[in-house]
Design a protein that fits this description.
single chain, mainly alpha, 9% strand, globular, three-stranded mixed beta sheet, 3 strands, 8 helices
């Protein structure tokens, strides 16, 4: 498995040091890593092989390898591949919510981290990843459900539209929140989400162009 570190993480570390929130950032990164371990474990149990582990400024990402022959075989058996991807997408947030429930029921610490901070961090990570913006887990869940119901091309189309609508709504909400809370972290999160939407929109346009060219041919 390949391991890659995005160098922008050092910029984020500097920002959170200057804003005196480095402890919170470190804790969020720790539970983001555990979140990805949830994805990885379920993916391995479902027969996928981890291909890469990427450490990014906003968390950790695990990618799985799918052989072409296995992909074709699974497609012939219906929508099993999409169902497995759906389960893997839900495994990360579920891991965070399980940790939350455990710490709500038991008055314990995790590596010296206060119980309340563990609960807060895992709720935040779990909910954040369920935002319906692709490629967050929420976006992946929607894409795979739409793939099963409407087919591949329509799943791309509607997932892209849902991501755009969601980021516009979040921009309005975060703009109001930033005025009152004055927290730079909200601005960083919003900027990251816009980056995801713009990047995925470019990929979507390229895919649609390829599909249109194939249909015309």
């Amino acid at each position: 498995m390949k391991i890659r570190i995005n160098l922008k993480i050092f910029l984020f570390i500097l920002i959170f040091i200057l804003t005196k929130q480095i402890k919170v950032y470190g804790i969020l990164m720790l539970f983001a890593f555990i979140h990805e371990l949830g994805h990885m474990l379920v993916g391995i149990l479902l027969g996928f092989k981890p291909g890469k582990l990427e450490i990014m400024p906003y968390g950790v990402s695990v990618g799985f390898n799918v052989k072409c022959e296995d992909y074709n075989k699974k497609i012939k058996n219906g929508n099993m591949l999409s169902i497995k991807k759906l389960i893997i997408a839900l495994a990360g947030p579920l891991t965070n919510f399980i940790i939350t429930i455990i710490f709500l029921m038991a008055n314990i610490k995790f590596f010296g981290i206060e119980r309340e901070l563990v609960i807060y961090s895992n709720i935040l990570i779990g909910i954040f990843n369920l935002i319906p913006i692709y490629p967050l887990d929420g976006g992946r869940v929607i894409k795979n459900i739409l793939h099963i119901i409407l087919g591949l091309q329509n799943s791309y189309k509607y997932t892209n539209q849902i991501s755009k609508i969601t980021i516009c709504l979040l921009t309005g909400i975060c703009s109001i929140a930033i005025l009152y809370i004055k927290n730079v972290a909200l601005l960083l999160i919003l900027g990251y989400l816009w980056y995801l939407v713009i990047l995925e929109n470019r990929k979507y346009n390229r895919k649609m162009q390829i599909l249109n060219n194939i249909q015309k041919a």
